[in-house]
TrEMBL record:
It catalyses: L-histidinol phosphate + H2O = L-histidinol + phosphate. One of its GO terms (biological process) is L-histidine biosynthetic process. GO terms for cellular component: cytoplasm. Keywords: Amino-acid biosynthesis, Histidine biosynthesis, Hydrolase. Belongs to the PHP hydrolase family. HisK subfamily. It comes from the Bacteria. The keyword Hydrolase applies. It comes from Calidifontibacillus erzurumensis. This is Histidinol-phosphatase. The gene is hisJ. It is an enzyme of class 3 (hydrolase). PANTHER family: HISTIDINOL PHOSPHATASE-RELATED (PTHR21039), HISTIDINOL-PHOSPHATASE (PTHR21039:SF0). One of its GO terms (molecular function) is histidinol-phosphatase activity.
Length: 276
C-alpha cells in the first residue's frame, strides 16, 4: 500500500496555492492509497517567527477551516484514497509548555502528526535552519562553525524525542537530517554517526517512527533523502517504522524522491502507531 505521510497544503504560507483537490487527484494518479496532510502547526502566540518572511506556519485563526475542509474531503474521496488530517509540529526549545497547550487544544482533531526541528536557539535568539543558503551561512557565522550548527541541531532532535508535550505529542520525527540541506555548499568535517545512533536508540526506546523524507533529493545542495540511506538501513534493522514523506509544497512535488528510496526496506502507514 503506497502512502505519503508528509504533505503540505494551500494553508501553507510559504507553499503554493494548489488546492487540496489538486493534491488528492495527483496522489490518486500516482497510485497512493493513503496520504496525510501535515500542515505547519501554528507557532506559539508569544514566539516571534525567525524566518525573514515570517511565514513558517499556518495562522491559528485558520485551523478550524483547515480541519473542516479536510473533513469534507475525507468523506468525498473515502472510496478512492484514505486521507488523514495532520500537523507538522515544531519542537521549539523553551516553548515546550506552549506547544503542549496547542496540542492539547487541537490534538483531538488529528489523525496524524510529525515533530520537526526547524529553529535553532543561540544566545537568546532563534534562527530558521532551512530558510536559504544565505541564512544558513549567517547562522554558521553567528554560531561559529558548521560543526557547531550540526551539533546544536542533533541535540535539539534528541530533546524533541525526550520532551514532554502531553498525550497528543507527535510520534514521528520529521526529516531528522534536515541540517544536511546545504551540505554541498557547507560541508561538515565532523562525523556525527555516534549522535545519530543515539538518536535512533531514543526513537526505538520511545516507540516512535521516522519520516523518510524524499524532499532532500531534489534540493540542489543536499542531493539525498532525510535521512540518507545508511541511517534508513540502521533504522530498519532496529525495526523503527519508516513512513515515506514527499514534504510536497505543491501538487507536482508529490512522489518526489520515492524512486530513490532504499528498495528493500519496509514502509509503514502514517497512522501505524496511532492504530497500535
Amino acid at each position: 500500500m503506497k502512502a505519503d505521510g508528509h504533505i503540505h497544503s494551500p494553508y501553507c504560507p510559504h507553499g503554493s496555492k494548489d488546492t487540496f483537490e489538486q493534491y488528492i487527484e495527483q496522489a490518486i494518479r500516482l497510485g497512493f492509497h493513503e496520504i496525510s496532510f501535515t500542515e505547519h502547526a501554528p507557532l506559539p502566540e508569544n514566539f516571534d517567527d525567525p524566518a525573514p518572511t515570517k511565514d513558517s506556519a499556518m495562522d491559528e485563526n485558520v485551523f478550524e477551516s483547515y480541519v473542516g475542509d479536510l473533513q469534507l474531503l475525507k468523506e468525498k474521496y473515502k472510496n478512492k484514497i484514505k486521507i488523514n488530517i495532520g500537523l507538522e509540529v515544531d519542537y521549539i526549545i523553551h516553548y515546550e509548555e506552549e506547544t503542549k497547550e496547542l496540542l492539547n487544544k487541537y490534538g483531538k482533531f488529528l489523525d496524524d502528526s510529525i515533530l520537526s526541528v526547524h529553529f535553532l536557539h543561540f544566545e537568546g535568539a532563534y534562527y530558521c535552519l532551512d530558510y536559504s543558503v544565505e541564512e544558513f551561512d549567517k547562522i554558521i557565522s553567528i554560531i561559529g562553525t558548521t560543526e557547531k550548527v550540526y551539533e546544536m541541531y542533533y541535540e535539539l532532535i534528541k530533546q524533541s524525542i525526550l520532551s514532554d508535550l502531553g498525550p497528543y505529542k507527535p510520534r514521528r520525527i520529521g526529516h531528522m537530517t534536515l541540517v544536511h540541506k546545504f551540505q554541498q555548499k557547507f560541508p561538515c568535517k565532523k562525523d556525527f554517526s555516534k549522535e545519530i545512533y543515539h538518536i535512533l536508540d531514543l526513537i526505538k526506546e520511545k516507540e516512535m517512527a521516522l519520516d523518510y523524507n524524499g524532499a532532500g533529493i531534489n534540493k540542489p545542495f543536499c542531493l539525498e533523502p532525510y535521512p540518507p540511506d545508511w541511517i534508513v538501513k540502521e533504522a530498519a534493522k532496529q525495526k523503527i517504522p519508516l513512513i515515506y514523506g514527499s514534504d510536497a509544497h505543491t501538487a507536482r512535488d508529490l512522489n518526489q524522491g520515492y524512486d530513490r528510496l532504499v528498495s528493500n526496506v519496509k514502509l509503514s502507514s502514517p497512522t501505524l502507531l496511532k492504530e497500535n
